[in-house]
Structure formats: C-alpha cells, structure tokens
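Appendix C: a fully annotated inverse folding record. The material below is reproduced so that readers can follow the format used throughout the book. The structure is listed first as tokens, followed by the designed sequence.
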C-alpha cells in the first residue's frame, strides 16, 4: 500500500506577525491578504496618552487592540493564515493565545526604534518558536545592513534578517516565503540531528 500524499492536498499554516507599536503589522497583513483582512483597529484616545509613545509615528490615529487576521495562498497547496499581534504592552496578555499552533513568526522592526522589538524576540525565543526579523523600510529606503541589525538585536546567525516594504504585496510575500523556508529547514535539521 502506498503512503504517498493525496493529490491536491492543501496544507495550511499559521504565522504570527509581531513587533512594536506602530511598526506596520496591520499594514503588512493588509498588503498581502487575499481576503479583506479582519482588523481590530480602534481610534486612539486620551487613555493612551503617556502609555503609547507616538513621537516616532505622529500620524498614527488608530491601534490594534486584539489582532489582525488575513490569509494568503502561497501556491495551490499552501495557505498561510496570518495573525497580527497588538503592539502595546498592555495587550500582550493575548500573545500566548495568538501564537498557539503557529509554525513561526515575523518580527517586524523599525530601525529608528529597534528597542521596541526586543520583547517580541524574547517572547519567541523563550517559546522556541522559529522567527525571522523583517526590517520595514518605511520610505522605501533601507538605511541599515541586515547584519548590522542582527548585531544590534543580538540574535543568532541562523535567524534570517530580511528587508521589506510592508505596503508592498510582493515584498511581504517574500518575507512569508522566507519564514516558511526557514521553518522547513529547521525541522529537517532537527529530524536528522543525532539524539
């Protein structure tokens, strides 16, 4: 009896999009999703004054309070479900639920505010969830070399660091494909590693 996979079998995977406040997580999910993304954007109110640092994102008027959700078909047999996390620390109690069942995560960074992504990196490293770092090039310009960002974040050489434009579908799709390839490489290496 053959144990070959059934023709036309579709695999789905959950990916978490994380990072600091105002780094572009909602934009990334929206740019690549083939469905109208579900967002939980709320208008920022005076309750966030002194809590949410908006100095680096002065035009920001809304914020994610629960999650963003989108979906993209990478090819006929792979569908990715994207779950964007809220960026403010007061909503981090939701992260444990959002990452449940995820194969990996994208940590989106703004090089003007690198310290904002340390908590996300620590979170995924502590849970041993594979992640990659995506440098969001807000104005279409990449000001820092990925290796310099890697060193500033003190992450291992095996963690991919890629540049992207969260507004651009092809750019964000490349980030997601890079993450899936990294996860598959890690799983293969674990499968062949001696016990």
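Designed amino acids, in order:
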């Amino acid at each position: 009896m053959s144990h070959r996979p059934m023709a036309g079998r579709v695999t789905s995977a959950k990916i978490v999009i994380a990072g600091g406040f105002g780094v572009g997580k909602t934009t990334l999910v929206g740019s690549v999703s083939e469905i109208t993304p579900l967002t939980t954007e709320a208008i920022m109110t005076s309750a966030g004054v002194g809590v949410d640092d908006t100095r680096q994102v002065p035009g920001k008027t809304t914020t994610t309070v629960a999650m963003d959700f989108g979906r993209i078909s990478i090819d006929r047999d792979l569908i990715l479900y994207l779950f964007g996390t809220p960026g403010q620390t007061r909503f981090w109690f939701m992260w444990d639920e959002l990452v449940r069942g995820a194969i990996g995560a994208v940590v989106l960074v703004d090089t003007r505010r690198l310290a904002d992504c340390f908590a996300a990196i620590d979170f995924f490293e502590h849970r041993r969830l594979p992640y990659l770092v995506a440098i969001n090039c807000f104005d279409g310009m990449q000001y820092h070399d990925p290796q310099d960002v890697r060193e500033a974040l003190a992450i291992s050489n095996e963690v991919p660091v890629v540049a992207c434009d969260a507004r651009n579908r092809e750019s964000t799709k490349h980030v997601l494909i890079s993450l899936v390839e990294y996860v598959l490489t890690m799983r293969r290496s674990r499968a062949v590693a001696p016990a």
